[in-house]
Specification:
The protein is mainly α. It is about 90% helix and about 0% strand. About 20% of the residues are buried.
Length: about 130
Amino acid sequence: MAVASLVLGIIGLLLALVPSFSVTQIVGLLLGVVALILGVVARKGATEQGQPTGMATAGIVLGIIAAVLSALIFATCQMCMRRVGDRMEDVGREFRKGMQEAVEKARREQERERRRNEKAGEKLRQVQEQRAP
């Protein structure tokens, strides 16, 4: 069990450091906890039998480091993702506001152009009426 604890602690630590969308950190956390449990059980058994406890202790230490590091990286990633999400909402609001303003400006411009065309049409009719015999 000491070897399993050591191996799971190493794998958990490596997974904690792999950049992903928090999936590997969750697996790293779980492996770290399992490594910790196996290490404690292995160390207790080794102590009772008078065996060396170094490998079990290393598994415990790596399990703790993997679990803590995974939890910290997971929490940090979640906070960053929440902030990015908030900023994206702000960008979306600003974009919608800008689009609405652009649409309103285009409508006003169209209305001005329509009025100019009407005035030009009126003047053209007046000129044509004056020239007509």
